[in-house]
Amino acid sequence: MKKFLLVVFLLALTSCGGGNTEEAPIIEQEVVVIESVSPERDLGGMVINIANWWADGETATIEPNSITERARWDDRREQEELYNFTMREVRYGSWHDVRDNLQMELLSENRDFQIWIVIPQWFATNHSQRLFSPIPLEHFDYESGIEWNRSVIELTMRDGQPHGFAHGVGMAGGVYFNMRLLEEAGLERDLPFRLQAENNWTWETFTDMARHLSHDTDSDGITDTWAITAFHQEVIAFALASNGAAFATINPETGRFENSTDTDAFREVVEWMVLLREEGLAFHEDDIGGAWNAFIQMFDSGHGAIRVAPNYVSGNIQLADDWGFVAFPRGPRSDVHYAWVTQDINAIPYFYTEQEIDDIMFAMQRWIRPIEDGDTSDWMFDAYSNHPDPRSVEETMVHFTRNPNLQSTPAHSMMPGLGNTLDVLFAHRVWVGNDASVIIEEAQQVWDSFLERVNNLGG
């Protein structure tokens, strides 16, 4: 819209007989001229369907649940009208339906869906068969304000181009702690909060704290209160991320996996985990002859001081005592609290043309673009309802576990056919207490053999 100043001269008409002409008064009037906006691209009514397994969503039918959500969908409606496209989020079926039918849909070149949302292993299985399209890097501008997940984009690279993407900020897990048990052990009830705030929350301070928390209260030779409770592979994953270690990496040019179990950072993780078990600080279900998930009840019943777990656990904790949540302690090779967050991946089927991919990504950039009226702290209201201590949200989540700069997606989650096999078996091998050197030597051989098979899947 442009504004112009219109100057109007009113001329005093003279009589036919002549006479003097009076100077006309000048009247200034502001006139508003509506300038038409020409969109940079007309997508010609293109319909883009994004397949998922949880819900439908489109601008014509969505019922927003918050002010931010309403602003988001209003903006999407405007973008669709401006650029002449329609984007829909479509529930294809259940989680199992997508898993079982995805490859068939791709091989049959079903054009009902332009984007599929998949978990990393489904992506990897189909990516190894070259069933997803490369997406030019030019579509991912990290300075645009869109929260592109750089880690996912880099992990899907082959021949120098990504074949999938993710956006938005994920929620990493961390350490849940029982304040009563810390206080009864002679420690500050909120010690982890203080150590985290002082940038002194490390493997060393974590271990020192744990040594005060495992107790045989009735001297019968059986531990009654454990310092650390956790699911085996989850705590191993947290420890690897916190020290910059990994099971594997991906070569961005070839897309091939490379073994990372022979690094010093990896060795330090194994040695630390073995130490926690040897000192009787970490609980294992075999200690009580319980089921694999006995650690959950151990923490919820007040017999475990610390639970290492993902973010979603916060809404399921049944602990009667006050508890807090902090990031996982950082390893000796890290200055910050790195974490792994496994996010779903968006991928475009291989049979779409370069022009169609360009149009799809153009629309996607407008579908997920930042909005002026959005409340970036909207997520905090949900988080408060799951955390009894506000510091868990205001300190831990804001600065650490929800920080995209501290998150990455583990390369091993992208391996086709991995499932819960190698990482689970490895974690169990470590968690039951063994010689670290023997464990690592075994792991190198197992992962070398597995990665050779995985790399050969793609030809």
Concise summary:
With 459 residues, the chain is α/β, with parallel strands linked by helices. It has 15 helices and 16 strands. Strand 3, helix 1 and strand 4 form a beta-alpha-beta unit.
- Give the termini separation: 57 Å
What's the Cα radius of gyration? 29 Å
What is the CATH class of the largest domain? Alpha Beta
CATH architectural type of the largest domain? 3-Layer(aba) Sandwich
> Spatial order of the strands in the main sheet?
4-3-5-15
Task: Specify the structural class.
Answer: alpha/beta
List low-confidence stretches: 1-37
Domain count: the total is: 3
Number of helices: 15
Describe the structure.
It is a single chain. This protein is α/β, with parallel strands linked by helices. The protein has helices at 67-83, 95-107, 120-127, 150-155, 179-184, 191-197, 203-210, 232-242, 264-278, 294-300, 354-367, 378-386, 391-401, 422-431, 436-457; strands spanning 2-9, 26-33, 46-52, 85-91, 115-118, 157-158, 161-162, 174-178, 226-230, 248-250, 257-259, 304-309, 323-326, 339-340, 345-347, 407-408. The chain has a four-stranded mixed sheet with strand order 4-3-5-15. The model is unreliable at 1-37 (pLDDT under 50).
Write the layout of secondary structure elements.
Layout: E1 2-9, E2 26-33, E3 46-52, H1 67-83, E4 85-91, H2 95-107, E5 115-118, H3 120-127, H4 150-155, E6 157-158, E7 161-162, E8 174-178, H5 179-184, H6 191-197, H7 203-210, E9 226-230, H8 232-242, E10 248-250, E11 257-259, H9 264-278, H10 294-300, E12 304-309, E13 323-326, E14 339-340, E15 345-347, H11 354-367, H12 378-386, H13 391-401, E16 407-408, H14 422-431, H15 436-457
Parallel strand pairs: 3-4, 3-5, 9-12, 14-16
Antiparallel strand pairs: 1-2, 5-15, 6-7, 8-12, 8-13, 10-11
Helix pairs in contact: 8-14, 9-15, 14-15
